[in-house]
Write a structure and sequence with these properties.
elongated; 135 residues
């Protein structure tokens, strides 16, 4: 599992999302179950390539597996949604866990998604949350 996670993360850093996806799919025949680190690395690959649809699919998989988001998966998903202007998906991520709303990075990424979609009221509502200094 560690080797797959490392390889998926390396592919994400190089913007090789296709390889990240192939590695994620190759885990199943090996009877390896992705963990939150695997999903975080795959989510980072989706964000680095602006593939918000893949980020959505990964979040759905995580929910099906009853795997909670951590800071890395949350921020990677929000980054993908921000790049795609998917403001509703970004707000859904923030709503999923109330403490996410107090995180400056999460609020900023969600505000960026809202701004890119010209959802100015939502973007402005998120700004004060990001100024409280909470992480």
């Amino acid at each position: 599992l560690v080797s797959y996670n490392t390889a998926i993360a390396a592919c994400a850093r190089r913007h090789h999302w296709q390889h990240s996806l192939a590695l994620l799919k190759a885990m199943q025949p090996e009877h390896l179950t992705p963990d939150v680190i695997t999903y975080g690395a795959a989510m980072a690959a989706s964000a680095s390539s602006s593939l918000w649809g893949w980020a959505t699919e990964l979040l759905v998989e995580m929910r099906i597996c009853h795997m909670p988001m951590n800071e890395i998966t949350r921020n990677a998903a929000l980054d993908a949604f921000a790049k795609g202007g998917r403001w509703q998906a970004a707000l859904d991520v923030l709503a999923a866990v109330p403490q996410f709303q107090r995180c400056a990075t999460a609020s900023s990424l969600a505000a960026t998604a809202c701004a890119r979609a010209a959802q100015w009221n939502w973007a402005f509502q998120l700004l004060p949350r990001s100024q409280d200094g909470g992480l």
